[in-house]
Amino acid sequence: MLSIEERKKHILQSANQLLAKKGLHDMTLDEVAKQACFSKGGITHYYKNKDQLLVELANMLDEDYIHKIEDEVAQKESSTGSWTRALIDVSNADLKGERGLNNALVAGAMASQKEGNNSRSFNVIQEHVTMDGYDPVLATIIRLAIDGLYYAELFKAEPLETELREAVLARMIKWTTEAEDK
To answer: Which PROSITE patterns would you find in this protein's record (predicted)?
Structure first.
């Protein structure tokens, strides 16, 4: 038998899968219940509505996102800009759909805003990039550019073609390594 925490995690993982398939507006609690093999009442026992479920999903994915960045940093030699480069690499993989966080992370963050609960990852990322050993203004510009790439994907607001996105991300990596060379 699953513990309460395991049940909640299973529901959130099911919601994340459904969100990736259907998108934010077409996902319902009924569909989440079906995906998770729970009754709708079983879902609403833990999450009173879709917004609350999205807030919890955002919290779970925030932690996962930060851990992926920290794991990337730990795998490489620490140097000026290494945290920002890891952020760029993890975000690039995510935007390619390799990690599955994109829509759920941003949609969940939007729901968090409704609930008055800011996404922890934004604060953690900002703190790390500005303390990464080079110009904090340039680091913030890089973070904001990455945020913009996510929002363009989420809202289908003219997301960049793959080749151009790759070039933009490569330029951002270059900026962090140029800062290291100085």
So the answer is: HTH_TETR_2 (PS50977)
Tokens of 55: 């807030």
* CATH value at residue 66: 1.10.357
- Cα–Cα distance measured from residue 118 to residue 108, given in angstroms and rounded to the nearest whole number: 10
CATH (domain of 1): 1.10.10.60
CA distances from 161 to 23, 103, 114, 143 (A): 20, 17, 31, 19
Global pTM? 0.80
Q: What's the structural domain count of the chain?
A: 2
Domain that holds residue 11: 1-48
Query: 115-159, pLDDT tens digit by residue?
Result: 565 567 778 899 999 999 999 999 999 999 998 887 777 666 777
Q: 27 pLDDT exceeds 70? A: yes
Same domain for 78 and 126: yes
Can you read off the two tokens belonging to residue 148? 């913009």
The span from the CA of 61 to the CA of 107, in Å, is 11
